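Hi R.,

Here's the chain you asked about this morning:
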Amino acid sequence: FVRTLYQRNKTSHFCTLRSDMLMSFHDCKIQDIYKQDPCHDFAFYIQYAVNEKRIQDKIQPKLKEFYIKIVTEKTELLSDTAIILADPYVLNVFCMEVFSCLHNMIEKENLPRNEEKLHFLLKFINLGINAWSIVNEDSTEEPKLHKTTLKENVPLLMVCLVEDILHHEMGTKYRDNGVSNLVSCTSKDSLVKTLVMHYVLTLAQNRNIERLTMVLPLIPDSISTLDEVFMHVLVSYLLQYQAEWKQAEFCKAVFNSFLNKYGSDEVVLRHVLRLLWTAHVHLDPELVTETLENIAPQPNHSSQVRDLFMQLSERTAVVDT
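And here is the predicted structure, written out as tokens:
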């Protein structure tokens, strides 16, 4: 049932629902249901990782064993596993583990192509982000990594992480070309796109304003749509900012060069309104006015968004005439 809903709606929260239901049956000891699910043990270990917010060494062999089994047998079990991995909470944990792995590699001066753990993590993420295609096409084939992922794109991400470390510890100036080359890769490599979006969220969480000012304007040229989960988390971080909004270049990067470029997308529009509802008191009134003019809802937008826009216009004393 949940699988069908996910296929019809392409909404990742149904993946979360599947795992939550299975774990609820497990907690309630309803064995007649959860014991029939061949993914039960896998889901249990994944849920353990989500709760711990890391993939501990002791469960990695069990996850790898299960993965090898499903890609070798080529059964419907592949799509069920992909649905579990498509849960946003699960993808977040795997992305966090990738970044932890990359930082360890930087310290040890190791290369991505030589890191077995990194390969393992990337394969799981790749299966998760391709879950809907696997379900929709009823595929039993493992989605392959892009040929440039490990040789070119992940090393570019490592370069950006090294620059962040040097900037934080030594005040070294950022270079423009490194992050620009990384973001441009996202249009061809969906796995790297996932990692880049996680990188952006990490920058926002750490309040790396200088780097965000560089990265955000680059995204619209390579990424055509922003998903609900990314927007929710990004705006949640931005809502914690106050003094940061006093930096004009940063404000322009966030609104003029980034969010306004997706103004016709209802998902983005809803979150921009959510951001402005609180942040407008810290922003330049002219920027608020310009942003509201750029994101004014169209007839095809929902009534909830149009109503929220009108309320925000009144709240900011900029009434739409």
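One quick note: The chain has a mean pLDDT of 88.

Cheers,
M.
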